[in-house]
Every structure is written in structure tokens, then in C-alpha cells.
Design brief:
Mg(2+) binds at residues 13, 107. By secondary structure, this protein is α+β, with helices and mostly antiparallel strands. It contains 14 helices and 13 strands. It has 3 domains: 1-166, Reverse transcriptase/Diguanylate cyclase domain (Alpha-Beta Plaits); 171-240, Orthogonal Bundle (DNA polymerase, domain 1); 243-376, Dna Ligase, domain 1. Strand 5 (101-105) and strand 6 (108-112) form a beta hairpin. Helix 10 (211-218) packs across helix 11 (220-229) and helix 12 (259-279) crosses helix 13 (311-325). The longest helix has 21 residues, at 259-279. The radius of gyration is 24 Å and the shape is globular. Mean pLDDT is 86; it is low at 382-402.
Length: 402
Amino acid sequence: MITLQQRTIAHFDLDCFFVSVECQRDNRLSGKPLLVGGSSDRAVVAACSYEARRYGIHSAMPMKTALRLCPHAIVRSGDMELYSAKSREITEMIAGKAPLYEKSSIDEFYLDLSGMDKFFGSLKWTTALRKSIIRESGLPISFGLASNKLISKVATDEAKPNGQLEILFGEEKTFLAPLAVEKIPMVGRETGAQLRRRGVETVKTLSEVPISLLEAWMGKNGIALWRKANGIDESPVVPFYEQKSISTESTFPADTIDMQFLHAELVRMTEKIAFELRQQNKLTGCITLKLRYSDFETVTKQMSIPYSCSDHILLEKVKELFKKLYDRRLLVRLIGVRFSHLVQGNYQISLFDDKQEMIALYQAIDQIKNRFGWEYLMKGTNVIPPGKKDTVVKKDILPYFK
């Protein structure tokens, strides 16, 4: 039986994924400072090339600021449909060869190779897989190989661009020790600055801070940080097909054919679970719509979509599915919406053509929903459910995303 200490975990990460896809589409962009995002002054940078990063540019930076730092940068609008297709292409390559894998984001994967050393040699096998992906997809990809997910991810970051790095069992703390504290996942700019103000600049120093002191500084996050600094991570590789889906359905008090009501329900349910997606920092790549007619016949239809968690994008797709699915013109008893093929990510990557105001709007909406409940703020639709004419409907619903 394989124990946690005996595990072998590979972390694969497609280098500058959106940028690499754009360079593959137009090789004249290779080696140049490239920004992927909206072209207006008020848009944001969704991704940038290594050449652009040398000017201090980073993702989520206002496009206007990025172009001020690098006036000669090339801007390309994002193509989430193409990026999603490329992501699925890489996923199929990994799925066809890996014994167990987790798709943790649109461009990152964890593979559990525990026990493979007895047959192939994990490093040899992983190197061969990386070469195969590069050859077949034409995209650069890096990997880290270690005893847990944390170390393999940090190793991948150190191996970039387009490289590989193995950290042998027992050498985890030695590998982490000289790295800056910001190299540890979950240590962002604010946490890093807080640690540096206290004289903690390297992972080695962080690992030596008493856990009780870190807890006093940062609460429960301090305990998690201490564990990471000491290379401890027992989290399992979660098989991709077991990734949680998010769904909701509604059985109506009375069967109905009222299109206005049905569309309003679609809006309500889509907004509800889209908010759950953003709460979990996830994107969906597949939507399933379910209808049950008055004669109890149940039908479903699904479609793959560019990865997203944005209300206005998902609503458009849900309504498109409903239009294709509802063809019997019978009374409807139940309707359901499900998001699956979930990966980690946030709404910024699907808003290439939107301005800062759109991202700020989503953040403001989610802050209100977090405080008062998801149903407090929704797309403007005042409807009364069939059979409930006496129902009082909230009048403080704010219309948005017209």
C-alpha cells in the first residue's frame, strides 16, 4: 500500500498559456512583449508574455498602465473559445496516459504517479509525457516532480519557462529553504509584505517561526503557512471526473407554459449557481439543462462552453440550450441547470473584452451577495410563480447586465 510519504506527484503547467496559444496562431508574436486582454484604455491585462513581464507588467493590471510601462507592447484580444479547446486537447492527451490526474485549472494538472517507479521510472515517464505534449500540441509546458502537490507546484514554477525539475523524497525542506516567502502558494503581495516587515524573507526563516506565533499573527492561515513552509501537504490528487458539479432545480407548484416565468426561473437558477462558482473560485466548461414535462417525461441537453463563471455569459448559453431543448410545447413541471467540468479560475480570464468596470461590478455584486444572500441582488425580473398569485415579490431587485 502506498503511504502519503511514498507518493510521487507531478505538476504540469502550460507556460503563459494564453500567450503561447496566440504565438502559435501567429508566430510573428514570439519573443515580443505581448499582452492578452481588451484593447481599450480601461481594459485589463488577462495574460502577458515573459518579455512583457520584464517591464513590470502582470495579469489583472489595467491595460493603460501596462502600455505606459511598455508602449511598444502588442495587444491581442482574448479568445476563450480557442483557449478552452486547447485546454481540452491537452487534457485528452494526459487522460489517455496518466493513471490518475486532476485538472486543477484551465492550464494546470496534477498527476499521481505513486508506484510507477517499480515499472517505468517516474521521471522518465513524466519526461516522455511532457515531450509528447509539446510535440503534439506545439505548446510549451513545464513540470515539477515531488512527493506532494505543494512541492511539485513550487518545483514547476522554478523550472519555468519550458523546463522540468525533480525534487527527491527527503529533500523538500532543502529545496524550499532559500526561496523567497512569496514562492509559497497562498503568500500573495499583502501577506508577503506582512512577513517581510517582521523579518521573514525566506522560506527557511518562515519554517523556523514557532507555529503558535504564526497563528497569533494570521490565525488559521498561519498554521497552514507553517505546514507549507515545512513542505507538508497531504492533499490528494482528485480525479478530474470526480470534480464536483454545481446544480439546482425547481419543481413548480403548478405545471406551466408561461415563457416569461420559465425564462425568469432560468435567470434565477443560473445566477444562483454562477455565484457559487465564483465563491469556490471555479469555472465551468459544460452546462446541462434538464426539463420535466407534465407527463413526467424528462429530457436533458448539454453543451461544452469556453470556461467561464460570468453571469452574462452563462445566461446566454443556458437560454440557448433551453431554446434547443424545449420542443414539445407541453406544460413544464420541473427545470434544472447544472455546471460541470469544473476547474479552478476566476472571472477575469473570461472578460478579455470587458473593462475594469465589469470586473469591479462583479466584485461589488458578490460582496453584496456575500453579506445579504445571493437572492438579494439579481437580474431585474419581477415574476410571480404560477399558482402563487398572492406571493409577495421583492421590489429591490436591481437590473444589471442589460
